[in-house]
Amino acid sequence: MTKIIGQANPNMPWQDKPAGYTEPVWRYSNNPIIQRNATPISNSVFNSAVVPFEDGYAGVFRCDSKSISMDIFAGRSKNGIDWEIDSTPIVFEGDPEVTVREYRYDPRVCKIDDRYYITWCNGAHGPTIGVAWTEDFKTFHQLENAFLPYNRNGVLFPRKINGMYMMLSRPSDTGHTPFGDVFCSQSPDLTFWGKHRWVMGTVPGDDSAWQSKKIGPGAVPIETDEGWLMIYHGVINTCNGFVYRMGVALLDLDEPWKVKARSRNYILAPQELYECVGDVPNVTFPCAALTDAETGRIAIYYGCADTVTGLAFTTVEELMRVMREFPL
Question: Does the keyword Hydrolase apply (predicted)?
Fold first, then answer.
């Protein structure tokens, strides 16, 4: 049996798999957990990330305003379901040449040692990956942007690997990115990034057409005794536009650019009304996952139709099973 390497989190959000349900991931019965008007000025709250913090949870949330400006906001919760999100965006401390804001969206949060690192798509002469850290979710210190434009979906690993910080990302372009493969990069200090290695790409043809247009890393990789579980998004271009679904892959523990397993079937797709109807229809976009090492439980936070935030559940065994039964 595959085991999660990490902390126990017995009070994390959870619902048991419904009787007779056969899919590997199931939705929280009271979705969406964050509505589009969660703050006084928000048009939508989605593609956001959370972590355990103190006696509850904290997170960084993408809240597009009613003027449709894109920025990220801190929030807190006692139970991981009911959230209080700040009404003003995060103000980053740092070099004024770096903290200049064009836009900010799609954050991830990763705890490494005693700091919480935030990565996001940062507008700096085009989309690139911003990096910052906090200890209290009140004061945020911005570091150098990880890469030159154009890049999106920067996701840190939760510990050093062979003495190096590592990050997954998806090099892109200045537009809506009609392509996308996942790469892994290394850094000795979270400033200088190199040793870029290709991880995996899209799947042409109909072997796994749901991820034929582009893919990108989602939640912070989950360490297990068999490898790093990567929950990611994949996109197909249909006659009615893009459709975003979730997939899962298993990366090598010591060389995480090497893929050990990958499911050809998606694990969650837009089916519910709040996933299919919104500012951008037909989107399920994972950005965070809580885990409980004792039980193998996983709670996935995901953006729905670029409008609201949903919560879904699975286990490490469910994800391993889908890769075994439907290998790519």
Answer: yes
Q: 81: phi > 0 → left, psi -120 to 50 → alpha, else beta; which?
A: alpha
* List of residues 6+ apart from 33 with CB closer than 8 A: 81, 82, 83, 309, 310, 311
Largest separation between any pair of C-alpha atoms in the chain: 56
Helix then strand then coil, in percent of the chain rounded to 5, is 5, 50, 45
With tokens 């490898």, the residue in question is 227
pLDDT along the chain (328 residues), means of 10: 96 97 98 98 98 98 98 98 98 96 97 98 95 98 97 98 98 82 98 98 96 97 98 96 97 98 98 98 98 98 98 98 98
Residue found under tokens 């459709």: 243
**In whole angstroms, what is the distance from residue 326 CA to residue 328 CA?**
7
Number of domains in the chain: 1
CB 143 within 8 A of CB 94: yes
Backbone angles phi, psi at 46, to 5 degrees: -160, 175
Q: CA 132, 284, 218 angle in degrees (round to 5)?
A: 35
Q: How far is CA 137 from the centre of its chain?
A: 18
Q: How far does CA 124 lie from the centroid of its chain?
A: 21
* Domain encompassing residue 245: 39-325
Q: In CATH, what number is assigned to the domain containing residue 262?
A: 2.115.10.20
Query: 110 lies in a domain?
Result: yes
